[in-house]
Amino acid sequence: MNAVLKRTAGAVAALFGLAAAGAAGAAPPLPLAAKPETAGFSAEKLRRLDETMQALVDQGQIAGGVTVLGRHGRVVSLKTFGKRSLETGEAMPADALFRIRSETKAVTGVAMLILYQEGRWRLDDPITEYLPELAELRVASGVDAEGRPILTPVSRPPTMRELMTHTAGFAYGLADDPASLADQAYFRAGVLQSDTLDHLARKVGMLPMYAQPGTMWRYSVAADLQGLIVERLSGQTLPVFMEERIFRPLKMKDTAFWAPPEKLPRLAALYDGDPATGKLIPAVEGPWRDVTKPPAAPSGGGGLLSTAGDFARFAQMILNGGTLDGVRILTPESVALMRLNHLPPSFQVTTNGTAGVLRPDQKPFPFSAGMGYGLDVAVAVDPRLSGAPVGPGTISWGGSAGTWFWIDPSNDLFFIGMIQRLGGVGSGLDATTRTVVYQALEKPPVKEARLNTSSR
Predict the structure, then answer these.
(1) For 210-228, how does the pLDDT look when each residue is reduced to its tens digit (9 = 90+)?
(2) How far is the C-alpha of 31 from the C-alpha of 9, rounded, in Å?
(3) What angle do CA 429, 435, 441 make, to 5 degrees?
């Protein structure tokens, strides 16, 4: 084994908590590719990925990060960059804990699908069957002469499908948006700072909607409402359900809604960019974002901590059609349902013979041409239209604290990137890493036999 491979193997061991062979409770790693070429990649071209990440460290754009690339059930590349903390100077460990924020939505989607395949709910059920607090929803259609919102009752309750595709009409309230009466109301009511998920739903039921159900895609509090539905259907809290039905079976030993004291030394420090200098400064956030103690209202939309290794196991489970290491989380049909574009026909046009492309007038939708939306994940419907190098059916998402992933079943690969800078480094790092990865992909004439990582 050459020196480079030895270092990669060591990083994989650290990533999956295998500092000591046979450590109790240690998660077995995904197998390591003998070299990138055995998984269809050029090792020389993959170095551009490392150079891209290291340049961001050298330029002071990020403190550090971790990237993982997997194909055919093997880890092709695992690299760490920079520092876990600029203040302490500690190097970024492979098993660093990251705030994955909105990547939590994909995990919540899996939790919902576990209950779906048990027959607990159906896609076209009205959400009021599970959230009766939302029976009197109204839409903000303008303001009256005194500046008060003009509220119009919704034409019908949103459906579960709409709830899981951000087409239900809810707002988010991440900021006091002057252009959105609904987001202003959510922000001022502290929806995301609610002391329980029940209280969150009651607030939402009293506040104005952004739009009528099914009329547009609007990023929203929908996944937090899904978290409450999981609790009500399962009789468990969202953290307990995810731990028992997803994390423990997949041996995702570090993924949770908070970090206990013994894990805090692995928590990646969070930074922001100084508006005046552009330099990194410690991020300042409200107490509701405190990840050192259990949250009062666990956020299915953005509350999880995870490691690159844990999320690699989650991604591989999706690639395997719902299984990993002989444990089934989802049926293949449920995985296919998650990856299906669920945007309604009224949103779509047919381009180059492919349906499912969002109409230009259906805004705000934050994706390029050829993209759709599945169940709590973005879906590449026709990547040709945007020039994206991914295969059709690729699902992806990212988190506001600087994490991103994509899972490409057409090419049997996944990629996970983790940094901790609010907002990332602009809007292009995910696209840049995609370009580099696929430029390094040299598809072999005969696809390698896949390792048996799924149940038989």
Answers:
(1) 999 998 889 999 999 999 9
(2) 10
(3) 135
- DSSP three-state, residue 35: coil
Task: Enumerate residues 6+ apart whose C-beta is below 8 A from 110.
Answer: 246, 314, 329, 330, 338
β partners of residue 415: 69, 406
Alpha helices in 207-307 (DSSP H): 222-234, 238-242, 248-250
- The full length of the chain comes to 456
Domains contained in the chain, CATH given: 3-109+240-439 (3.40.710.10), 123-234 (1.20.58.710)
**C-alpha–C-alpha distance, residues 268 and 253, integer Å:** 17
CA 43 to each of CA 66, 391, 437, 449: distance values in angstroms, whole numbers, following the listed order: 18, 21, 11, 20
pTM across the whole model = 0.89
Helix (H, G, I), strand (E, B) or coil at 153: strand
Tens of pLDDT, residue by residue over 157-193, are: 999 999 999 999 999 999 888 888 999 999 999 999 9
